[in-house]
Design brief:
The protein is an alpha/beta fold. It has a single domain, classed as 3-Layer(aba) Sandwich (Rossmann fold), CATH 3.40.50. 46% of the residues lie in helices and 13% in strands. Strands 1-3-2-4-5-6-7 form a seven-stranded mixed sheet, with helices on both faces. The C terminus is likely disordered.
Length: 272
């Protein structure tokens, strides 16, 4: 999906929940509106999701190759923003295909999960195997900073519990998607992050259960040209609860790099 217009496009790679629910136009438009609040309005924004029916063997490597092909053939080099699980894909894209990524933004993401985040994803995979969508969704409980939003989220899940099999993707699709973006242990060897040439912004909250401070700091240290912006006491829903502040952080980062964006891709240093 594309929104806005202008030079220096932004490609947004959505979070893993894009393959949890059955795709609908209404949901796609809601996602587009939410993302539009985070990025400059004078830029064309392309929102990319995932394969709606992932085949066996679906992997992050395959997702990265598909997106690199779209960038080369249809969009051109761009600012790439990965949200949550989408950050895994965005970071791998910047490392494997640096010619396609001018600047990189990892929003509520890192190169690996926190220990708690890993446990939650493993439980989600287990519940998806069982077809227990109510417990699957409960793993997203208490993701907001504000208690009343957590209450509303749980109320919504409770109201939907009798029709979850109508709105959720089939278990095989969910499991293949989760395994694609979360099946690898990226934290075991983060040396690949050093291949990211693009100036990088990492934005997260200090109370994010999926990507903790340690994970985000490790990512920032390993990428040669990265800066980290942490919002105190914010959670994984930082882009929703503090959309204005996040948008200003992203705008400031991109404005500071306007000459680089207009002049082309970052270049590797010449050997001595």
């Amino acid at each position: 999906m594309k929104t806005g217009s202008g030079a220096n496009p932004i490609v947004v790679i959505n979070g893993g929940q894009a393959f949890v629910r059955r795709p609908t136009m209404a949901r796609a438009h809601r996602d587009a509106k939410r993302i539009a609040r985070l990025v400059p309005r004078d830029r064309a924004v392309y929102i990319l999701g995932y394969e709606p029916s992932p085949p066996p063997g679906y992997s992050i490597a395959g997702i990265v190759e598909d997106i690199s092909r779209i960038l080369r053939d249809e969009i051109g080099p761009a600012t790439v923003m990965g949200i949550s699980f989408g950050g895994f894909v965005a970071a791998r894209l910047a490392a494997e295909h640096p010619e396609t990524v001018k600047t990189l933004i990892l929003l509520v993401s890192a190169h690996r999960f926190s220990p708690e985040g890993r446990r939650r994803i493993d439980r989600q995979i287990e519940y998806a195997w069982q077809g227990d969508f109510e417990r699957f969704l409960n793993e997203f409980g208490l993701v907001f900073r504000r208690p009343w939003l957590n209450w509303l989220l749980r109320l919504r899940f409770r109201k939907e519990r009798h029709r979850l099999h109508e709105t959720m993707n089939d278990p095989a699709t969910i499991i293949r998607g989760l395994n694609a973006v979360a099946g690898e242990n990226f934290g075991s060897d983060p040396s690949w992050l050093a291949r990211i040439l693009a100036p990088t912004l990492i934005v997260g909250g200090t109370r994010d259960p999926f990507f903790d401070i340690d994970a985000m700091q490790e990512t920032a240290r390993a990428i040669p040209s990265a800066q980290l912006k942490l919002f105190e006491n914010e959670t994984h829903m930082l882009p929703v609860e503090r959309s204005g502040s996040v948008a200003r952080t992203i705008r400031s980062f991109l404005d500071a790099r306007s000459p680089e964006l207009n002049g082309g891709l970052p270049q590797a240093a010449a050997p001595p």
